[in-house]
Write the structure tokens for this entry.
Amino acid sequence: MNIVLGVGGGIAAYKAAELARALMERGFAVQTVMTAAAQQFITPLTFAALTGRKVITGLFDGQTADSVLASSVEHIRAAQENQTLLVAPATADLLAKFANGIADDFLSTLYLAFTGTVILAPAMNTQMWLHPAVRANVDKLRARGNHIIDPDSGLLACGTTGPGRLPDPAYIAAETSRITAIRRDFEGETVVITAGPTQEPIDPVRYVSNRSSGKMGFAVAAAAAQRGARVILVAGPVNLATPPGVTRVDVESAVQMRDAVMAHLPEASIVIKAAAVADYTVENPPDQKIKKTMAKMSIDLSPTPDILAEVGRNKGTRILVGFAAETQNLVSEARRKMETKNCDMVAGNLVSQAGIGFGSDENEMILVPRTGEPVKLAQAPKPVIANQILDHVLKIRLAVRSGG
Ligand code: PMT
């Protein structure tokens, strides 16, 4: 789910960096907007590095006519692309602007253009928080339907004790999750997802496999279940807990994965193939352990069934999403796989870059849809990427329904 994190100019602005991280761990894709005052306390670079997105710092960031024109509509685009606006810390100044419709910077202009859920986490000196002007503004905002996360009481940076302290970032993130209550936009869908590697036995104790941890596929399964889908997760051998609400089918080899996917295909309305299936398997592995008797040994490999291609041939009205793990030519290879395997979209994964792809907690992808331009998903935790993939699946679903 996309969220705008608006950072106001108070001493608690430093806590917003931790908040950005906590939101991402909960599956939010975070777009940060900083007021000029916030930038006196913490730099945009911190948020850009944490969220993998350029931080919006002003209504008129550039000086040329073109860039002024572009940035003057950016707040409308940000308002349309995001479901939630969370402002933390929300200073007395920002609360006054929001309550009274003053739009003199990016954040206050965005607030007026925003039609989604608004959550405000005020933080300020106790006397300011208790001042009738601030109380009136908070009451006005609450009455308008904005959610207010009340400040904590305690010792404040100014040395006084009382209400006004920004709550713990983990608490604000949890409250944000609760308030936005993950969308149920996959209700009615049955999604078959594959994840992890396959293991192709050489003998009873050895096998051929790859570095897939299953994290990407499991993140997609967790997100789809949270969003209301019935999820069947066909998992290769991985060391991960089953996400809540997900039906898991454990397999080892490519042939077992093929059989499980094809057995559940009749129920599926969406198939997402994140697994790293071995392309070759060992021909006739012996029943007994191979002994170390030869100076050299070789094994014969034969191709495994291409599960994605088989699902593509039997796709019917289902939406089929393939993955492509590549070390080069990502877009052209993803497009080739989409055409040859009859997919609706292929999620291209560059696997030669450190910190993303196999085994890592984060990923970066290029989604290549059948119609439309490729979409780059900036580096982010796998749960964020998973939700972004699902957002695009939903776009395909809506296009199919409207005959597009
Ligand atoms: O599991 P993680 O550690 O989180 O890493 C995630 C990932 C890198 C494994 C994942 O993001 C990814 O890229 N998965 C696809 C890996 C892969 O096998 O790509 P491929 O280009 O070799 O295969 C293309 C597609 O065909 C994939 O959807 C694959 O599931 C499918 N396939 C491949 C071979 C085969 N015999 N049958 C298949 O269905």
